[in-house]
């Protein structure tokens, strides 16, 4: 047996953070941690409550979708994670939840406009929502096609997944990613709050306009640009 203790622990901590941050109830979420050098990722087992998880219960899956190590069945969303690792280079963690506000936007099949600087600090454009999956796609490998739908949406909209590391799947819910499993969960927290703020903005003013482009640009660049000055060096 190979030593994947650290990868399992990373995935476990990320899944527990989903619960701690209130992003999922019951079993409504999953996170994974990817080791690109070994081409393997650790993911939450399917249908197991968060308080019953352990690092050892995380399932190791290879890039062909086969169980490499583990006695439990991996998350039903495993193939979606696999597609994102395969096509979005340089990501090392993926999170999927059914958090309330993000899922509401997904069910409304609405991308989230940049209404304020909080959004602009984390994404320089709207958070994209996919179209509904076609009937033909649902008859194939559903979870694999979910991943393909996300990839195609980013290609069609010419979005860099390293700049906007979150999306909504129409009628389904949010997916986020990052350079670690922990960062992927952090992005899920941010996405939920952005969706909540956008909802409240439209409740207060249904005709609210997106943030002016020059303010969006300023807030994105002060955190992520070549001359970024936010935070500590």
Summarize the structure.
This protein has 233 residues and is an alpha+beta fold. It is 41% helix and 14% strand.
Topology:
Blueprint: H1 5-20, E1 29-35, E2 40-43, E3 59-62, E4 67-69, H2 78-87, E5 93-97, H3 100-107, H4 117-122, H5 135-139, H6 142-156, E6 166-169, E7 173-178, H7 181-204, H8 213-224
Antiparallel strand pairs: 1-2, 1-5, 2-3, 3-4, 5-7, 6-7
Written account of the structure:
This protein is an alpha+beta fold and 233 residues long. It has a single domain, classed as L-fuculose-1-phosphate Aldolase. Helix content is 41%, strand content 14%. It is built from eight helices and seven strands. Strands 4-3-2-1-5-7-6 form a seven-stranded antiparallel β-sheet, sandwiched between helices. β1 and β2 form a beta hairpin. α3 (100-107) crosses α7. The radius of gyration is 18 Å and the shape is globular. The model has no long low-confidence stretch (mean pLDDT 96).
Major sheet details:
7 strands, antiparallel
- SS-based class: alpha+beta
| Count of structural domains | 1
Number of continuous helical runs:
8
Between the first and last Cα atoms, what is the distance in angstroms? 41 Å
State the total count of DSSP E strands. 7
List unreliable stretches of 5+ residues.
Answer: none
What are the main properties of this structure?
seven-stranded antiparallel beta sheet; 233 residues; L-fuculose-1-phosphate Aldolase; 41% helix; 8 helices; alpha+beta
């Amino acid at each position: 047996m190979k030593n994947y203790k650290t990868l399992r622990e990373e995935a476990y901590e990320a899944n527990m953070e989903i619960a701690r941050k209130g992003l999922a109830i019951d079993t409504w979420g999953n996170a994974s941690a990817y080791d690109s050098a070994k081409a393997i990722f650790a993911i939450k087992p399917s249908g197991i409550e968060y308080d019953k998880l352990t690092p050892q219960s995380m399932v190791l899956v290879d890039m062909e979708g086969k169980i490499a190590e583990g006695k439990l069945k991996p998350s039903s969303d495993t193939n979606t994670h696999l597609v994102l690792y395969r096509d979005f280079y340089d990501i090392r963690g993926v999170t999927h939840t059914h958090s309330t506000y993000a899922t509401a936007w997904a069910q409304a099949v609405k991308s989230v406009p940049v209404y304020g600087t909080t959004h602009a600090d984390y994404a320089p454009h709207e958070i994209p929502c996919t179209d509904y999956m076609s009937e033909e796609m649902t008859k194939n490998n559903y979870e694999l096609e979910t991943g393909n739908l996300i990839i195609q949406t980013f290609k069609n909209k010419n979005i860099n997944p390293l700049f906007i590391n979150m999306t909504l799947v129409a009628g389904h819910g949010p997916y986020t990613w990052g350079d670690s499993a922990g960062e992927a969960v952090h992005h899920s927290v941010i996405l939920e709050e952005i969706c909540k703020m956008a909802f409240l903005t439209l409740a207060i003013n249904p005709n609210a306009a997106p943030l002016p482009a020059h303010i969006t640009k300023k807030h994105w660049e002060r955190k992520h640009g070549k001359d970024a000055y936010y935070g500590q060096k």
